[in-house]
């Protein structure tokens, strides 16, 4: 049941996550491994991902010193490397970036009081003309008919790969969910359970549906919710290796 409780809130959370990832992401397992500012601690959000077709990795960091000290250290590092860097300050915090060959490094420092420590997110994007290869290919999971992909994120962990699509679908959520469930069943997917239809906390008039299905080593958790006469769908596929 916990699985479905998470799905009921999934639409809003995934929208926020995708917006964050799309603004700046990083890549593991490549030459994009420079460390402009040495952190005190690191929290990995996703070291090996593909975000909207781009190999990506994102880590949270804590640095010693105030935000202005960290920003200055970032700029000085790239100056010494003879790599142009950019910085922008706003009510949303400080955004610093540097493009080193095919590697785009982005350091995001959210608003916080000056103190002995600074929290930030380090993102790196590997820019390449080569198409990234998904471990869960497009052919593995059919998406809802007439859906438009808003965001597409694949995350690789030891023993398991997950791929999540955020979709915009015309029509009402409950009917889109029923059609999609029938489509998966017709292709050999088995039902793992269904959550009763729920109301969105942010919009009491909006309804949603969530369910889970499995075929072989692949499983999907799916949620459909109404928004402004259309459907927001989240399809989260998982493959165990």
Automatic annotation (TrEMBL):
Keywords: Signal. This is Lipoprotein. It comes from Paraburkholderia lacunae. Residues 1-28 form the signal peptide.
């Amino acid at each position: 049941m916990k699985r479905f409780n998470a799905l009921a809130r999934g639409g809003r959370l995934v929208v926020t996550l995708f917006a964050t990832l799309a603004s700046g992401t990083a890549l593991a397992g490549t030459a994009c491994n420079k460390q402009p500012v040495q952190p005190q601690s690191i929290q990995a959000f996703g070291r090996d991902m593909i975000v909207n077709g781009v190999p990506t990795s994102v880590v949270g960091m804590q640095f010693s010193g105030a935000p202005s000290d960290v920003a200055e250290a970032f700029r000085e590092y790239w100056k010494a490397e003879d790599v142009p860097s950019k910085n922008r300050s706003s009510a949303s915090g400080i955004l610093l970036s540097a493009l080193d060959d095919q590697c785009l490094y982005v350091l995001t420092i959210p608003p916080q009081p000056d103190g002995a420590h600074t929290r930030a997110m380090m993102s790196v994007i590997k820019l390449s003309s080569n198409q990234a290869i998904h471990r869960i290919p497009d052919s593995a999971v059919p998406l809802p008919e007439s859906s438009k992909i808003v965001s597409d994120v694949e995350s690789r962990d030891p023993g398991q790969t997950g791929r999540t699509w955020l979709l915009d679908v015309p029509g009402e959520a409950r009917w889109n969910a029923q059609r999609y469930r029938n489509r998966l069943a017709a292709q050999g997917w088995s039902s793992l359970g269904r959550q009763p239809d729920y109301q969105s906390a942010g919009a009491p008039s909006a309804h949603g549906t969530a369910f889970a299905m499995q075929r072989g080593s692949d499983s999907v958790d799916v949620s459909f919710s109404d928004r402004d006469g259309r459907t927001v769908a989240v399809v989260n596929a998982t493959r165990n290796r």
